[in-house]
TrEMBL record:
<feature type="domain" description="NADP-dependent oxidoreductase">
    <location>
        <begin position="16"/>
        <end position="295"/>
    </location>
</feature>
<protein>
    <submittedName>
        <fullName>Aldo/keto reductase</fullName>
        <ecNumber>1.1.1.-</ecNumber>
    </submittedName>
</protein>
<dbReference type="InterPro" id="IPR050523">
    <property type="entry name" value="AKR_Detox_Biosynth"/>
</dbReference>
<dbReference type="InterPro" id="IPR023210">
    <property type="entry name" value="NADP_OxRdtase_dom"/>
</dbReference>
<dbReference type="InterPro" id="IPR036812">
    <property type="entry name" value="NAD(P)_OxRdtase_dom_sf"/>
</dbReference>
<dbReference type="GO" id="GO:0016491">
    <property type="term" value="F:oxidoreductase activity"/>
</dbReference>
<keyword id="KW-0560">Oxidoreductase</keyword>
<dbReference type="Pfam" id="PF00248">
    <property type="entry name" value="Aldo_ket_red"/>
</dbReference>
Length: 298
């Protein structure tokens, strides 16, 4: 495993992290604690130290799985990032909750679920600019940092061209930007990454495998069933993506190199990117993701 400084937080994170949206049950699989334990144990064995989760991956369900695991391990071995701003109702149904008082309740609920007294990185979760530009919210969050409940603040931008929230990061003491970035979606390179570099912000690249399109598993013509989140994607967009992926496979991925590993390493070649946070359904996928670090220059 390789490690990088997460911007001005000065935390050293593994370049491969563990994304945990799947633990909330919206990827068509309901996880058990034993399955989560096996995934996180494999991650630690391979040198991964970064877990990214959120309050709305299930109703604090993903956090609860992680908390149960962490409670039986060494808390200091992990950098835990979670998020705030949404209330989970049912599969793919959420409402926004960004008021300062409500966010404080969410923070306490996250701390309880994670069975910890501090969160390493607490992230504004893909909210609109109107609720981001709320001094009361950031004043409340600064107080939580001062109280030791939160070590660092971050912003997970919903649009990967949201330069408004990125440019305002230093003003609100947000030290990390989380953004969708992958070989099929390079939009952050234009404005977001330059802003991050100017401010010395850490960058977490989410959806680095483009919702699995860059996993190497799918050929043009692939069809996703109704239990798969990709079934919700526009069919014409899916067709174009699969054709582009096949072109990338033939023209950019070196012979003999696993496409998913190549795609993760591709993200990490950009100097702004600190770590990628792919999801994983089992220990084998964790192992494949971690192997991408071997393709990354130190």
């Amino acid at each position: 495993m390789k490690y990088r400084r997460l911007g001005k937080t000065e935390m050293n994170v593994s370049v491969i992290g563990l994304g945990t949206w799947q633990f909330g049950g919206e990827w068509g699989q309901q996880f058990t604690q034993n399955e989560v334990d096996a995934i996180l144990d494999k991650g630690q064995e391979l040198g991964i130290n970064l877990i990214d989760t959120a309050e709305c991956y299930g109703d604090h369900l993903s956090e609860s799985f992680i908390g149960d695991y962490i409670n039986r391990r060494k808390r200091e071995d992990w950098i835990i990032a979670t998020k705030f701003g949404h209330h989970f109702h049912e599969r793919f149904t959420r409402t926004d909750v960004f008021g300062a008082d409500e966010v404080l309740k969410q923070l306490d609920a996250s701390l309880k679920a994670l069975k910890t007294d501090y969160i390493d990185l607490y992230q504004f979760h893909s909210g609109p600019d109107a609720v981001f530009d709320n001094d009361a919210l950031w004043t409340l969050l600064d107080k939580q940092v001062q109280a030791g409940k939160v070590r660092h603040l971050g912003t997970s931008i919903g649009s990967n061209d949201n330069v408004h929230q990125t440019d305002a990061a230093s003003k609100v003491n947000s030290e990390v930007i989380q953004v969708v970035y992958n070989r099929l979606d390079r939009v952050p390179e234009n404005r977001v990454f330059p802003s991050c570099e100017r401010q010395d912000l850490g960058v977490l690249a989410r959806v680095p495998l483009a919702s699995g399109y860059l996993s190497g598993k799918y050929k043009p013509g692939a069809v996703f069933d109704t239990t798969d989140v990709r079934h919700r994607h526009d069919p014409e967009s899916t067709r174009r993506k699969l054709e582009e992926v096949e072109h990338i496979r033939q023209t950019e991925v070196p012979e003999g190199v696993n496409m998913a590993e190549w795609a993760l390493a591709w993200c990490l070649k950009h100097p702004a990117v600190s770590a990628v946070i792919p999801g994983c359904k089992n220990p084998a996928q964790v192992e494949s993701n971690a192997a991408a670090a071997e393709l990354v220059e130190g």
